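Hi there,

I know you've been waiting on this one. I reran it after we fixed the sequence typo, so this is the corrected version. Both the input and the resulting structure follow.
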Amino acid sequence: MTRMNSILNAPSKWDLAVAFFSKVEKGCHRTVTFTVYGPDFPGGTCDIEVGINSLKWEDGSGESWLFEGFIKKNNPINLDLKVKGWFRTSDRKGWIDILKNPN
């Protein structure tokens, strides 16, 4: 089950590109910071570090992005979770779903 959370501040296009194309270690990308708010973050607005594994243009504008990845282990909800979402680099707003592990 997923619950949609709002992205209040997403990375810039430059930060997104650098993180996506720069590997830190085998199989892992650098992380980018998202400021989020929603049902998965009952403490209110918080910053999460997300490693982006998949990135796609949503509409060909070069500003609208679909992404998949993972939340870094040290996060407000303290789990290593997969995520998917959408945001625009022009206003740095969008949404993010945390994909709950069924186990």
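Quick highlight: The chain has a mean pLDDT of 84.

Best,
R. S.
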